[in-house]
Give the backbone structure.
Amino acid sequence: MAFLSLLWLPILLSAVLVFVVSAASHMLVPYRQREWSAAPEQEALQRAFRGARPGLYAFPSPADPRERGKPEAMRRWAEGPSAWLALIPPGPMSMGRNLALSFLVNLGVSFMAAYLTAHALGPAPHYLAVFRIVGTVGVLAYLVGPVYEAIWFWRPWRSVLMGAVDSLAYGLVMAGTFGWLWPR
């Protein structure tokens, strides 16, 4: 953990800068405003799920997982509609909680990038070597999750592409910050 005493500033600053770029992307860039569509029959959906605990739900889906492969379950799935749904607690969204957790994730990604880069390059590496490794770690960290969501949970590929642009920006911000502040 000796690397932490040398790299605390680029870890912290890159997490802050990624946080700012992410906030700007989600609040100011118009393509984000059209990423989610309004669900049909919203009042009926709300009535149907009223009282359900926050969590992940699938439908159609039998209560017993062993029933999923049976003909009736397969027929209902084939007829559709089918969905995976994440229910959140009722009431206003807690932006403070979400922003704080997002910052902690950014801090974790920056920490892991610092750890990997410090151990891969050793003392006094060149700016470009730091930039390449930190940038690669940053892009991978922010991009891989949405790709799996597209594969398994039908997240639209257009949304993944928008996320890829964001991931590239986050990786470049991290790379530049670490390259600039890396101890020489």
Q: What stands out?
A: The chain is about 70% helix and 5% strand. The longest helix spans residues 2-28.
